[in-house]
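Changelog entry: the Peptidase S58 record was regenerated in this release. Current contents:
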Amino acid sequence: MAGAITDVPGIRVGHATDVVGLTGCTVVLCPEGGVVAADVRGGAPGTRETDLARPGQLVERAHAVLLTGGSAYGLDAASGVMRYLEEQGKGFPTPAGVVPIVPAAVLYDLALGDPRARPDAAMGYEACRAATGGSVAEGNVGAGTGASVGKLLGPAFAMKSGLGTASVRLPGSGVVGAVVAVNAAGDVRDPRTGRIVAGARAPDGAFLDAARRLLAGEPPAALPGQNTTIGCVATDVRLTKEQAAVVARMAHAGLARTIEPAFTPYDGDTVFVLSCGDKDGDVTLVGLAAARAVEEAILRAVRLAASAGGLPGLAG
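Regenerated structure tokens:
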């Protein structure tokens, strides 16, 4: 399984990347609007429009999802995404014109590069201009530029992470894709082998297995709010807002299978869902595929991350 979230018809993805400041943002565009939902599991989230994404709210569709670095400062980038969509005439119609709906989530990357380098409205606009429906760059790009993992035992033991994407084809017709920026406090395991592939690492390269050490009594050294894994799932299966919320909840299983521990007080783990098509499909199957796509995207995010900011990456 590989693929990309852009395997979903109508989805475009773009990045804006600051390779010096080690930050950036990633936009998932669905200009015609997709039924949106969100599920927030971590204890330290930084988000926008997640209330609107709940079932029962007036607005059902979003026109983009923004994943960004810069901690709460990075939410500024959503303004640039709104400006781009407004110029295209895309948004929720009102008597005074369209209002683009752009849910967003942030991760904390301020400590890795330049803490004054943060995604802003110009970067959000740039990411939209760069968006395509083709291949998606992975690793040290966009929201994954300053991402790292394995910080539960302290930043000195961390590894570089990044951004990854994957998709799953459904039986008959339909596709589910995911894009994830991985900035977890915990370690990343391959659920097929149970082995750690990225995480807290000793100077000789051996993995320290943070979960095992914490359970043995070693206190965590991670700082609250300085982590977070964020992602977006998209599908061309027609979903109601309630069904999209089920898929968002199920998608977190992919995060829990690959990151140990997940949903900690130090992370703001958040998954958005966009339903952008009219294909028939079973919501349970879509949720299962979403979890698998998230799982694979997380593994790709760490395997394709290159060393940066003094942290070693698996891509060299």
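The longest strand covers residues 23-40.
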